[in-house]
Amino acid sequence: MLVKGLVCTVLFASAPITWIATQEPRPAAPATTPADAMAAQSRLQATQRQVERDLEAARQEVAKARAEAARLQQQLGRALDALEAAQEPQRERNCAPSRSRQLMTHYRWLRDEGHADRAEATLAKVVEQVGDDRGRLHRTAHALLTEVETGGKFDDVALALVEKLEQSGSKEPHHLDTMACAQFLNGRIERAIELQRRAIAAGGRDEEFRLRLRTYEAARNAIGRPARDAASDPVTATGETLVARSDDD
């Protein structure tokens, strides 16, 4: 029995040692040689040089694109100069909006295409060609606001004309009425209300002047309400309905 006990003890004590010895050893990490490090550095430098070449090529392409854009801009400027010179109507033939319609259409195109400076200069030319006569300024602005062919298309041109009319010192009720309409259709509601009140105070005729004043005031009040409430208001701000009649002067 003593011998069996010694044998069991020896086997039990040697079992962990045997289990540990049977485990596979972990592979050692490969050693990095100086040659490997130099090769990696060389690859990195080559990649960097390629990136620099690509960047320089991109810069050259951008420079070419800018030069081409500048050249096209110059061509466009010369074309616009030629177009404006070709379509400028004679001043003595500008007594009606239809006579200068082409120039006004050109102004709208310049404005919509983002040529702000040229558009402003063209608008000034339109106003200049209409002249300084109060009656002509009023008739032209009124026609632009109310005629079917021009209504809603040249409201900003009409505004420039009535501003010149106002600067002339005109206090005629129907002049003030048209001034108010032009202001209103260009989004200047407070100014429209002020001018319409002045038109009424100066002897504005009939109920039409007061109706337009109520329209302007209703539009101002609607601005502060929700969109659905404002949309339900029976307010129609069109030049044809807001300016019903025109005098000769």
Strand-helix topology:
Blueprint: H1 2-22, H2 34-87, H3 101-112, H4 116-130, H5 134-146, H6 155-167, H7 173-185, H8 189-201, H9 208-223, H10 227-231, H11 239-242
Helix pairs in contact: 3-4, 4-6, 5-6, 5-7, 6-7, 7-8, 8-9
In short:
The protein contains 11 helices and no strands. With 249 residues, it is mainly alpha-helical.
Question: What can you tell me about this protein's structure?
Answer:
It is a single chain. The chain has about 250 residues and is mainly α. Among the domains are: about 85-130, no CATH class; about 135-225 and about 235-249, Serine Threonine Protein Phosphatase 5, Tetratricopeptide repeat (Alpha Horseshoe), CATH 1.25.40. The chain contains 11 helices and no strands. It is elongated, with a radius of gyration of 42 Å. The termini are far apart.
How would you describe this structure in keywords?
elongated; 0% strand; 249 residues; single chain; 11 helices; Serine Threonine Protein Phosphatase 5, Tetratricopeptide repeat; mainly alpha
